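Data availability excerpt. The first of two example chains:
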Amino acid sequence: MMKRAWTYLTGLSQGILSARNWLLAYTLLILLPVSIMLGSFYQRSNDILEKEVTRTMQLTLKQAGMNLTYKLNHIRDSSNSVFMNQILYDNLLQKDKITDQLGQIKELRNLAETAQENEDIFRLRFFVDASRMYGGDRINLYPLADMDKYPWYEAVKEAGGGIVWTGVYPEIYNDYGEKKIFSAARMLRNPRDYEEIVGILVMDVSEMLVQEIVSELQFSEKYAPYLIDGRGKLIYGTDGPEGLEPDAAADSSQALNQLPEELLSAVSHSEEGIVKRTIGRDKVNVVYTTVGTTGWKLVAQVSEAEISHRATALGQFTSIATLAGITVMFLVLVFVLLMFMIQGMQRRVQMILRMIRKEGIGWLEDRRSLPDGDFRLLERSVDHLIHKVNNLMEESYRAKMQEREAQLRTLQAQINPHFLYNALDMINWSAISHDAEDTSEMIEALAQYFRLSLNKGRDNVSIADELELARVFLEIQQNRFPSTFTFSIQAESGLESYIIPKLTLQPLVENALLHGIRKTKNKQGTIEISVRLENGDVVLTVADDGIGMDPQQANCLLLQPAAGQTAEGLDGSFGLYNVHERIRYFAGNRYGLSIETKLGTGTAVRVTVKAVIRK
């Protein structure tokens, strides 16, 4: 063994020495020039990548700004709609009668609820004179004096009836608790006496509206995007810098979400652009765009160090591609050099062949004692190749034998169902001949159940077949548990040709019977199965009046497979989790199962699946 290893290492070293001229040519003619080219390419790729990254950031930031503008425009339009509604002013003016003031409260609340139907508006608030009866419910109606606590109140008064957009701030609601919001506020004047201020209209918007858009802008691991107003005041963003030196964090003019005065001036006078700044030791590219309606600036930052890191990753891919190209060039060089060596090699090969024909194969073995060389290395390689080919032939033969055995097992599996049907048919005739009608009916139902469940190997069945399978299963269970439960099946007409995954209803029906009805005290109940078309989808419902379950436990059954057993101690069927996952695989993630249940009142499992007609 040691001798063979030593021989192998000796042959390898001889091969390397023989290829030294090739390696030298490869280094001088290919490797050295390509290394110089790669260095130059790496520097240029860094510059190009920085431009491309910032340009991509600008386009993405602009799209996010347009999305935010679109949502804020909707809020502005809702504010304008309320602002120009005559009903608002009719109910803000002073009325003496109590009944009239109660009517005003009702109308103002209806107006607020109508505006809040816009999903982006969290709360509509009216700040009115505290002398009004309705001026203090603190749901939609607040005393005007409360406005003094807001720092943006002066800006609202200066704007007259124009909209003032606030930054994000926490607000405490009597019926909700604390929530972070930003608002669109404007002054309301008496249309009969324009100098009289009758209230302040404030539309509150959840911070989530901005957060959902800004959080998707993941340009940098160190710097988060943020919103500022035209004066540089923070509207929404992180609290401070992350991953910076302490001295950089302490310098307020270099704060993560605050631009220096010279940059703020440039940003304020243009709609969008790219500027550079320094934060601590980081050189940072600042990309910004303008949010329409408000004049806010959406700002994102990425350091040049992060861009260089991306360039390194890109350079790795480029290096692999370059090395592949170098390898191809080397092979071309090998081919050219071989052209000069082919004649000498041919003469040597012909000489070896003549000696083998003359002296026999034993001559080749005798040359084992001769000094090693190129052809000695070639002989070892051929010998290794022959052994490898023999091993591959043996593996191929074993694989074919295993494939043959698998085919035989498949044929046997196809024979078993036919044998089962024939055996059931023989038992059925035997039962009929002995006047055992109940046994005959059970055997026929069982045979029908197996035919429907196997479905000729197909994974999807028609709704009609699935309902028939459920009916047969329940009839078998009625014979098993006589006078314990009843069932009904209702299906809208025209749904018979739609298809669903096989064995969708059977596990649900089995759960309803064994885990719902059979676990009640009297072990009696009703199972109802219904199928209908709803909003273009097929909805199947299996409901029972059994013991029910905890809703939280029911939801867990859809998130992970249940490790349990049926009431009879046998392994469970497919289970709710399995059916839910198969429906999602068949129709998509928005489809599947939902459970309505309560302890002691029963369970209703709703299956929603895409409406697919059999072709």
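And the second chain:
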Amino acid sequence: MPSSSSVVSSARADEAERLRVRLVWLVLFRTVAASLSLVITVGRLLFQPLEEPSRADSLSLGVIIAAYVSTVVVGIRLRRERAGRLDAWVQVLGDVVIATGLVYLSGGSDSPLTFLYSLAVIGAAVVLDWRGALWVAAAGAVSFSSLVVVLRLTDSAPLGPVLSSRGLFVLGSNLLALGLIAVLAGYLSRQLSAAGGALSAREADLRRLGGLQQQILSSMPSGLITCDSQRRVTFVNAAARAILQVEGSEGVGQPLEALLPGVSVLAPRSSRGELVVGAEQGRRRILGLSVTPLEGESGALLIVFQDLTELRRMEEDLERSDRLASLGTLSAQLAHELRNPLAAMRGSAQLLAQERSSDVVVQKLTNILVRESDRLGRLVEDFLRFARPPEPVRREVPLDSLLTETVDMLRADPLARDVRVEVSAREPLMAAVDPDQLRQVLINLVRNGFQAAGPRGEVRVGLARNEKEAQIRVWDSAGSITEEMMGHLFEPFFTTRDGGTGLGLSTAHSIVRAHGGSIRVRSDPAEGTEFVVGLPL
């Protein structure tokens, strides 16, 4: 809540600003009036017979020039923002003095310029409200009365009453006119001030409402876009620019389809729909949006949308975890059932091999049995490791050293031949992980990158901090994972490699999840494939 002192200061500032605005109008009016009076007086002197200007003409020019100069001075002070209430009083009282001088020079009580007093009263009512109008009316009445009396006393006419009945009538009618004009001008000034105050309050309310509206639109977490009947974008809020990665006012004026391809299918009204945007530029976003017609313009639309990309990714991860959990349970049961008969088969094959049969065919078949039994045994062990990964034995490990050592070890792998490998660790990071299990994850991801990139390909491995997690990024230049493959990438036995078991990524996924982390992947033929492993710090 604003304090009372701030409210008073604001009110005073508003009042001073209104006074300056009124002074500006008064100065403009006086400038025009003084200029016209000067032109008329000079023109009259030019068109009269050639002779020296009379004393009255000279004094008239002097009064007009003085009014002009005072007006210019106040105008300069207004421009420098120094003019205030004192300048207003100087102006209106100066108008009374100027009016008295011009009335004196143009015939006194019979002058046709007595209306100048009324103009001074009106000017005072404009800049000083009704009190100023009454005071200036009183000053004008005193000035005019004094002028009439002084002119009568200095008149060379025979002595008699100070004012004749006609003089009293002229004086009384002028004073009455000044009083009535002061009252009327004061009343109109009060009404004008009240209307101006109400208008200022409404304008302030509108400004506050406009500011609140902009604040609401800027603070909305949802994207908001409006378009006209020609499907041209007319407004894009901050959230929409962030979601669509549009800079500044770049989106305004563009066709709606350029920002939201396919939205026209949902127009003119859709309570809920989904769009995939930015896939061509590698900035794939899943948007949940609603389309509503805008009132006031036929065909105009309001589109409100949210970025569902992360939500859909989490849903996919949850579904994948559920599938993997189900497969893990089934795999554990199957592997358990296979181990005993497999062990019996291998034992029997070994006994046969020990008999040293002279039959070459028997020896060959026996060796095949032992070799394949061993291979099946390793496969079952891998299967069990995926189905029931051992609980991580956590300890504080420098991730940057673990990353560098693992990649250096893999440089000797035959798959790394002719592959350019880069490692970057921006800062040393410590995390509570099982180093052996995490090394297994890195080996699976980096070797997959080697195989995908192939000769003359490139693999980059990086480590960086992202908020409250450490991110290990493994990128290869191939970008060979299709959209169809994405949904099955971490499922057991899914492989695109000849001779692969399809358990590497599944095991890596299980290990990362056991550490409370996440593993994500994105792939594009133009930008390559990147696996991102997030580990809590």
